[in-house]
Amino acid sequence: MLSELAERYKDTDLGREADALLAPCVQCGQCTFRCPTFRLNDDEWEGPRGRIHLIKKFFEGEEPSRELLPPAYTLADLTGKKYGENLQMHLDTCLTCRSCETSCPYDVKYGRLLDIARIEVEKSVPRPLKEKLMRKLVRIFVTNQARFTTLLQAGRMLRGLLPTGVRTAIPAPRKAGVWPMREHDRTMIIWQGCVQPALAPDINAATARVLDRFGIKLIPASDGCCGAISLHMAEPEESRNFMRKNIDALWPHIEGGAEALVLTASGCGTHFRDYGDLLADEPEYAQKARRVSEITRDVAEIVEQEWTDNNVGEITRPENVRRIAFQSSCSLQHGEKLNGVVEKILKRAQFKLVPVNYRFMCCGAAGAFAILQRPLSKVLRTAKMKTLLASDPEMIATANIGCLTHLSETSPIPVDHWIEVLDETFTSSGL
C-alpha cells in the first residue's frame, strides 16, 4: 500500500517506520473476519483493514476526528456514522490481540503499527479530563506491584460494602504453596510480574515445583511491569523506563549463568521478546535488551523441551479422565506463536481436551482493555464463555493472568493456569 507521508513525517525515522509497516498491506481483508471487534459490530472501521486505512490517512496528514463519544457509550454508539472515522476511538477499542497478524498473508506487523499510531494520535487529539484521569490511575496502580497489592487487599477487606459489579471483580486469595530451592546444576529466572504475585502467587510457585522435577532451580526475579501496558496506552517513555529497570534487575542473574527468563504470563512474554527491537536505538541497553529477548521463554516451551521419561516419567491414564477446555490466550497464539504447545502437554498429562470453537477469538481481557473498555470487554467474555462451556468441561485452563482473572469473574467452573494443573497431576501421580 503506497503512502504519501505528510511533511512532518517525511525524512524522519518514525515516518520511514510507518511507511515500511503500511507498505505490505494490500487491503485484502483476510484479517477482517478474525477481528473480535469487527465480528461484534460488522463495522469496517472496527476491524484491522479499516483501522490501517485510517492510520494511513493520518500519517498522510489528515487530521483525526475530535468528535467525542458519549459519556457511557454502548456498542450501538460504535457503529453509527457520527463516530465512523474517529481514529482515536477505533485505536482504543482495538484489543491488540494480533489475531489479524496470524491470518495476514503479507506479514503486516499490525501490532507495531498500532503502537506508533496510538502514540502519534495521542499527541494530536486531546482527551476529556475524566478519561485522562482514568488512564493515569490504571498506569499508577496496575503497573506497580506494591500499589496493586495494597488496592487488592483493601478491596477484599471492604468486599461486603462494595457494589455487586465491583465485588465480583475482586478474586478470592490464592495460596502459593512451597517454592523449592534445592540446588541444581541448572538455573533459570522467572519474572514475577506486576499483578500476578497478588492475584495468583500459586502460578509461579507451581512452575518452580515443575521445573525442580526437571533438575532446574527457578529463581524469582524482581517484580514489576514489563512495560507493555504503558506502550499500548501511548506512553512510550514510561514503557522504556520499565524496560530499562527490568534489564538492570535481570542482568546480574544473566551474567551469573541463568539459562532462560521464564514467563508464565504470555502477555508479558510477548513484550519481553520485543525488548531487543524496542531498545535497539539505545547504545547502553541495546545489546542487553537483545540478550533478554533471546533467552525469554514461555513456560510451555520449557516443559515441552524438558519433560522426558528420564527426569519425570509418564503419567498413568486415570479411570476418570478430567475434561478441560483450554483457552489459548491471544498473546500465546498470535504474539508468542506457540499455538498447540500447551494442548500437547495437557494431552500427554492424560487430560481430555474438549473442542472449543473460534479458538482465535479474544476473551476481552487484553491488559487494561477490561478496565478501560468495560462494555466491549463484557460482551467479548460472554461470547468466549459460551464457546468454552459448550462441550461441558470440568474446568478451564489458560496461559495468561489477565485471561484467568477476567474469565473467573463469571465462570461457573474453575479457571486455572495450565501449569498449576500439571503440577497437581505430577504430585497426585507420585512423580
List the helices and strands and how they pair.
Elements (H helix, E strand, L loop, with lengths): L12 H10 L13 H6 L6 H12 L15 H5 L7 H6 L6 H5 L6 H15 L4 H14 L2 H13 L6 H4 L18 E5 L5 H4 L2 H12 L2 E5 L7 H5 L3 H20 L5 E3 L2 H7 L2 H4 L7 H10 E3 H8 L16 E5 L2 H6 L5 H8 L3 E2 L15 H4 L1 H16 L5 E4 L2 H8 L6 E3 H11 L3
Parallel strand pairs: 1-2, 1-3, 3-4, 5-6, 5-7, 7-8
Helix pairs in contact: 1-7, 3-7, 12-24, 18-20
Structural write-up:
This protein is of the alpha/beta class. Helix content is 49%, strand content 7%. It has helices at 13-22, 36-41, 48-59, 75-79, 87-92, 99-103, 110-124, 129-142, 145-157, 164-167, 196-199, 202-213, 228-232, 236-255, 266-272, 275-278, 286-295, 299-306, 330-335, 341-348, 369-372, 374-389, 401-408, 418-428; strands at residues 186-190, 216-220, 261-263, 296-298, 323-327, 352-353, 395-398, 415-417. It has a four-stranded parallel β-sheet with strand order 2-1-3-4. A four-stranded parallel β-sheet has the order 6-5-7-8, with helices on both faces. The longest helix has 20 residues, at 236-255.
